[in-house]
Each structure stands twice: as C-alpha cells, then as structure tokens.
Amino acid sequence: MRLTKKAIERAKRPEAGRKERFIRDDVVRGLGVRITASGAKSFIFEARIKGRPRRLTLGCWPDLTVVLARKKATEKRAAMARGEDPAAEAEAARKEATFADLTKVYMDRHARPNKRSAWQDENTLRRYIPVGWNSRRLSDITRADVARLHAKIGEDHGHYAANRTLALLRTMFNLARVWELFKGENPARGIKQFREEKRERYLSPDELAAVNRALLEEPDWRWRAYFPLALMLGTRKSELLAMRWADIDMERRRWRIPLTKAGNSHLLPLPGPVAAILSGLPSHSKSDWVFPGDGAAGHIVEPAKAWQRVRARAKVADVRIHDLRHTLASWLVAQGFNLPLIGRALNHTQTATTARYAHLALDPVRAALEQTAALMTAGSVEGS
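Above: the chain's sequence. Below: its structure in token form.
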C-alpha cells in the first residue's frame, strides 16, 4: 500500500501467536512499517546488500514522519549503490565501546598491571569525569566535550587537576585506538593545557617545628607516621602510600621501591629516626602494607584530608603535600650536599630537575665570590 499517516494509524497488530507484522510502501521500494504485538510501530528499510538480506530500523513512528522515512530510505539505497553497507555500519555503531568500557579495559589492561599510582587514575576518573560519559560511545565524545570539561575542572578544582585529567584522557584514547576499541581521532589531542606555576615552597625550621607539634595531635597513627616519613625520605606520595613490609630490610635499614614514577626501582637508605618510626608501627608483622587501608587498594590512598587537619593546626595553609619533598631538598642544599647526591636521594632522572634547587646554595657561592673579589681588588686597595 501507499504509506500514509492514516494507513499507519489504522494498521492492526499482528495476529495472536505472532510477534510482529509488516506493511510495505509502494512508493519507495524497501520501505515498510513494523508493528509489534504491543502496538509499537517503526519504519524499516529492507534490501539485499552483497546478496545478503538486510533490515534496518529507520526510526519510530510517529516521531519519524512518512516523508522523512522515505527520504531516509532513499539515502540508504543511494549509499548501497556506492558500495556501502549501512547495515554493517549500524551494527558496528551498536557494538562500539562506551567510555565505561574503555575505563574498565584501561584499568585492567594498563593501569593496574603497570602503574603503582593506578588508584590515582581511578580517583581522577571517579572525581572529575561526568557520570553521563559512561554510557556514551567513544566516537560521540568530541574535542569540544573534552575542552569544556578541561575548562570546568580548571575553574572548579584548579589548573593542576585539569591538566592531569586531560593527560589521562589523552592516554586512554590513544590506547583505545591501539586496542581497536574505536577508530576516530583522539578528542583529547590539540587542547592547550593550563599554565602551571612552578612552586618552590618549603617548610622553614619554625614551620617544621609547628608541623611536628600538630602531628602529635593527629588521631590516626597511619598519618601520624606517614607525614614524618614523607619529610625525611622525600618520596613521591604514591610510593610511600604503597609501602610494603616485604620491600623493607630493617636489618640493613634500606627500602627498595619496586616501581617509581621514572619506571625503575629505587634503593633508598633509611635514617635512624625513620627506622625507629617503622619498627613501632602497629602494622609491623601484621599486614603486607606499612599503612593498611580498608579500600580495594589494600593501603591508604588519599592523604589530602589528613594533611588539611595537620596544616590547619600548624598554620601553614599554603603548604601542599608535595612541598614536603621540596622541603627535604632545600634542607639538603642548605647543609652543602651537592646536587648529584640530592638527585640520587630524590630519584631524579634528569639533572635539570635537581638544578631547580641550586639557587638555595648561596652560602658557598657567596664565600667564593667574596674571596675572589678580595684578591681582585687587593692591589687597588693598597694603592689608595
């Protein structure tokens, strides 16, 4: 029949025992309407593609009108004439991975097996990625979507958090292409990161004394030990959080960090005060982790709230956790230790990273300049 609004309205449901019924258009070959047992009606297009019968759903009636359905059916027939397979494309779109699929594959296949900081990626995804992204197909996430998200995180949570999220998304979409989860362009590429100011904040002797006093009031023994160790060892946050007893040699007083940010292991001597703190911890001989936790990671994972309590009591509100690492470096420089040794202690792979602390070692430079200036002006002073 010629499909019209009235004809579709009057079309009856399938007979008892049948799941669906079809009525077909005599204007555009292949166009029809499918009617289910519940009475739902939708436009379909039927044709043979490379000898195989195919049926595509064009849209639901009455959301899709007869005029638009004929136009869609004509477009599908034209695509077939060009050698395309609309049915295969539709099937591929249905099977395309969602962002939730990518998140699971990324964590299982890449982050957890290869990164000690996998929990940080998990926290970033949970905290900053909109819930609505999980059900979206990867090809539906555009560069504009990522740019808007980057800007919003920067406004609400700061430039550092926004840039780290952008970098994580870029890595995830790159891997999605490698794993053939989708074939589109990486939507996180080409977005300019926020400028991050390099901070050189570190605790002065008075501030350090205030932090030590504040730590005495910390109720959780894990954080009461964690922050002094962070100060005395200068390790990165994730390395110390995931500290295992199996990696500590108390007899020789050394700690082997199995995997660092640099991608290598790092053997670190343990000073006497550090060994004393470790030997007195309740987890000693009772847990795999030095700082056990209740979550999936098995160890404590986020020191931010605890540090807020400590720094509030110590009145050092602008000091970040990473500044404890800067503090150790600055104190080592002040004692006259050379930069290569400091770089070794902090596990810097680039000398330029350690060189940022060079300006703190002013006393030896001042002494050398004073001595040289005295020699250079000795003659003029005698003749004056």
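The chain has a mean pLDDT of 85.
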